[in-house]
Amino acid sequence: MTEAAESDEVLMSRYARGDAAAFECLYRRHETRTWRYIERNVGNRATADELMQEVWFAVARQATRYQPSARFTTWLFTIAHNRIIDWVRKCRPHTSIDSLPHEGGSVAIQLTADPSSGPLATAVAHEQSSALAQALAELPVEQRDAFLMQIEGDLSVEEIAAVTGVTFETSKSRLRYARMKLRDLLQEHA
Amino acid sequence: MNESPPPNEGLEEVDERYRRLSECDSSRPSEAIRRAVLRHASELAAQVRTREGSMPIEFRRPSANDSRWRVATYGGVAAAALAGLLIAPHFLTPSTAPQKPTTAAPTPAPAVPAATPAPPRVLAGDADARRATMAQGPARESASRPQLAQRATPAPSAARAMASSTFPAAAQQAARSLDAARALREAAQSGNVQRLETLLAEHIDIDARDANGRSALMLAVVHDQKEAVTSLLAAGADPNAADTSGTTPLEAAIAAARPEIAAALRQAGAR
């Protein structure tokens, strides 16, 4: 069986036994999803880079503790979620997480800088990414977090409830409200 | 939070739209981050390979809530004081080699009579002997101090000051606290709840860490000791006490697939 066909859990077990190639496969498989989850939550590329590194360092360090019966993505997004919360508290200890402004617009500009594209393609990509970033930025923090966790991490409602420490119903509500708002916001931007 | 779910009509298209728009987003973590992560993982994997089996990976990066300095300080003070108390007087005592008589006058009587058996020497590195000495309590300590002072009688004033100082008592107190904290962690790790409860009644630092920054709660989580986790949380253990690698007890519980422990931690406010 090739590495690409192996489950996350098998790859983690292999890495825990010292197989660095298994980790690389795992990292490449989840790199973009983890990155988007973090970057779209914090709204700042430099911070996202920093947190991304912290999250994956933690995954590597804790590999020997990992039990294959635990779903890898739940664990990965728990770590990412906690690092984001830590960052928020560290940066703005007296500010509620709900009141954090999101730098959606500026992030959108950073998101689309792809020099290999032509000017028209770049402009279109910029506009679309900008619309998405702005729409996400307008969501309440908890709703954005839950939505990104589900769509990027493929976490179930139960898993999101577990990671964020709320009830199943609360988690479900957040997801529904997030989708409703996003639908309206993206229509506005269309 | 009182949120009643709204109807879920036509919301599937939002996911589709999100994915479509995300495809336009070419942003990724920087190449430097990728390299750093993979290099770090590779180094840790090499450590695992060079050790036998799957020994725990040690990575000592100080975290924001790192409290190892306390353990290191108290431990260092205790070790230095014990070593000083037990070894220094021995070296400072004048040599027992025969000396040339300078005068015909009778020499003064030795401080310690020759017939008196010397107290058993406890070397600084002999942990068992040191623990045994401490276990015998203040009576033994007070009995042994005068002998040590007598042996050091001809020594310079600095040594006498050290022997009579109250510093060793403070150091011994610190050492006892460390022993109690260690005992608490051992009880948590082994799931000895009775011992745990006894120790918790002694008002020791419930969140004291080992060299890897692991609290008693973290050890109970890692070793799947549900009752110990419950007891520690009920006694006020910090549910978010991360180890030196920044791992929280909840992350460890999820990694180890221990949903009951994870639920108990969340109920206590862990994240």
Text of the CATH class of the domain at 68-92 and 123-267 in chain B: Mainly Alpha
Main beta sheet strand tally, sense and closure of chain B = none
Instruction: Fill in the CATH topology of the domain at 1-99 in chain A.
Output: Rna Polymerase Sigma Factor, Chain: A
Mean pLDDT of chain A: 83
Taken in chain order, the helices and strands of chain A follow as HHHHHHHHH
N→C terminal distance of chain B: 18 Å
Q: Tell how many strands the DSSP assignment of chain A holds.
A: 0
Structural classification of chain A: mainly alpha
- The CATH superfamily of the domain at 68-92 and 123-267 in chain B is known as Ankyrin repeat-containing domain
Give the oligomeric state: heterodimer
- Please state roughly what percent of the residues of chain B sit in beta strands, choosing from under 5%, 5-15%, 15-25%, 25-35%, 35-45% or over 45%: under 5%
Structure description:
The complex is a heterodimer of chains A (about 190) and B (about 270). With about 190 residues, chain A is mainly alpha-helical. Chain A contains 9 helices and no strands. In chain A, helix 1 crosses helix 2, helix 2 crosses helix 4 (about 70-90) and helix 8 crosses helix 9. With about 270 residues, chain B is mainly alpha-helical. Chain B has a domain at about 70-90 and about 125-265: Ankyrin repeat-containing domain (Serine Threonine Protein Phosphatase 5, Tetratricopeptide repeat). In chain B, helix 7 packs antiparallel against helix 8, helix 7 runs parallel beside helix 9 and helix 10 (about 225-235) runs parallel beside helix 12. Chain B is extended and about 80 Å long. Classes of the chains: A mainly alpha (about 190), B mainly alpha (about 270).
Structural descriptors:
heterodimer; A: 190 residues; mainly alpha; Rna Polymerase Sigma Factor, Chain: A; 0% strand; globular; B: 271 residues; Serine Threonine Protein Phosphatase 5, Tetratricopeptide repeat
